Amino acid sequence: MVVLAPFPPRRLPGLSDAPHAIPYQGSKRQLAHAIVPLLPPDTARLLEPFAGSAAVAIAARHLRIGDTAEISDVNEPLMRLWQRVLAEPVALADDYERLWHEQLADPKAYYDAVRTRFNQTHEPHCLLYLLARCVKAAVRYNRDGGFNQGPDRRRLGARPAAMRTRLAATARVLSGCRAYTADYADVLSSAEPADVVYLDPPYQGVSQARDHRYMAGLPREAFVARLREAVARNTSFLLSYDGLSYDGPSREGDAAERTYGDPLPAELGLLHLHLDAGTSSQATLNGRHTRTVESLYLSPALAARLGGPDAVHAALTGPAAGGSPAPR
Questions:
Q1: Helices (H), the chain
Q2: What is the CA radius of gyration of the chain?
Q3: Is residue 254 in a domain?
Q4: Phi and psi at residue 60, in whole multiples of 5°?
Q5: CATH number of the CATH domain containing 292
Q6: What angle do CA 136, 11, 73 make, to 5 degrees?
Q7: Cβ-based neighbour number of residue 35 at 10 Å
C-alpha cells in the first residue's frame, strides 16, 4: 500500500454554487473538492452506493465529470426521498412547506408527531422534514429500525423558500441520474470497467450492527472481502473509511488524538491518501481546536487510470480545476 502525506483542504471554484438538498451528518460536501479531481475524464458512471446526501455525485454532475451518476443505499426510506427529489421536486417542496408551517404552533410536539407518522408510513416528505429539524442532521434508529433522533430546539429547519430552491437545483444537476435501493456489494460487483464507485460507509469504529446511527452495520471482515474481490476484477473505486482527529490544547490545557478505525489491509494494494478536512466546528464550540484528517483509498485500477501515485499527487496539489461548470 502506498501512503501519501496529508493534503491540505482545497476549494474548487466551480463547486461554490453546487446545490445540496438533504442535510446529512457525515456528508462529504467539503471533501468532494478533493474527491472529484480523482474521477477520470473517461468515467462513464459514478456509482455512490452509500448515498447519504449524495455529495460526491452532486459535485461530479455539477462539474459535468462523467456521463451520469447513480446513487443507492440499503436505507429504503432515504432512497424513496431521493426518488422524489429527482422526479417531483416541486410537489416535494409543497409537502415540506405544509409541514413547516404546521409546526409553528408547537414545534416540539409537531416534530414528535411527524416522527411517529414517518415510522409508520415512511413518507419521503416526512423524512425530509425530520432531517431538516433533527439534532445535527444526524439520523438515529432504535432497535426496531425506527427513526428516534430528537429535534434541534434552536431552529425550525430550512425555510420553505430555501428548501424549494435547493430541491429544484439538485434535481436539475442530477437530471437523468438514477436513485434506487441496493446493497453496496451488489453495486460494487456490477461496476463496468469505465465506471467509478465511490464508497462512503460508516467508519469502522461506529459501524457495528448494534450501533443505532445506521440502519445496517458493516462488518469489517465481510467488507474487506468485497474490496478484495473488486480489486481482483480491476474495479475502479474510491473509499472513505477511517480517519483521525488532532485536538489542540483546550481551555483546560490538555490535548488529544483520536482515531476512527484501523487502516485497511496493505495486501489490497490500495493507494492511501490523507485529506485534511479542516477544523471541526463542533469541537470549536466545545473549546477545542480540532483538525480532522480523513483517509481516502484508491483501487489499483483507478490509480492506474489516473497515471499512478505521482499523477494523483499532482491532481490534488496543482491549480484547482473546475472553474465553472459546463453549460446546461
A1: 32-35, 55-62, 76-87, 89-102, 107-121, 124-133, 160-173, 184-190, 220-232, 281-285, 300-306, 309-317
A2: 20
A3: yes
A4: -65, -45
A5: 3.40.50.150
A6: 45
A7: 22
119-127 average pLDDT score: 97
Q: What is the mean pLDDT of residues 190-204?
A: 89
pLDDT digits (tens, 9 = 90+) for 148-157: 999 999 999 9
Q: What is the pLDDT of residues 259-311, one digit of tens each?
A: 556 789 999 999 999 887 765 544 444 555 567 788 899 999 999 999 999 99
**Best CA proximity match to 183, nearest among 52, 75, 85:** 75
- The answer to whether residue 325 sits within a structural domain is no
Q: What is the full DSSP assignment across 47-104?
A: EESS-TT-HHHHHHHHTT-SSEEEEEES-HHHHHHHHHHHH-HHHHHHHHHHHHHHGG
Burial of 56 (0-12, 13-18, 19+ CB in 10 A): buried
Cell of 193: 470497467
> For residue 322, is it within any domain?
no
Give strand pairing partners of 247: 256, 290
Question: Which helix (H) or strand (E) is 274 found in, with range?
Answer: strand 271-279
Domain count for the chain:
2
The predicted model scores a pTM of: 0.87
- List the domain range (segments joined by +) for residue 126: 82-170
Give CA 47 to chain center in angstroms: 12
Asked if residue 119 is part of any domain, the answer here is: yes
Exposed, middle or buried: residue 328 (CB in 10 Å: 0-12, 13-18, 19+)? Answer: exposed
Residue 6 has pLDDT above 90, yes or no: no
Nearest Cα to 292, choosing from 247, 254, 241, 262? 247
Distances (CA, A) of 255 to 81, 91, 277: 41, 49, 19
| Three cell numbers, residue 27 | 456528508
* Integer angstrom CA distances of residue 143 from 50, 146, 258, 327: 21, 7, 28, 47
pLDDT, tens digit, 9 for 90 and up, residues 32-62: 999 999 999 999 999 999 999 999 999 999 9
d(CA 127, CA 96): 10
Closest CA to 98 of 57, 129, 130: 129
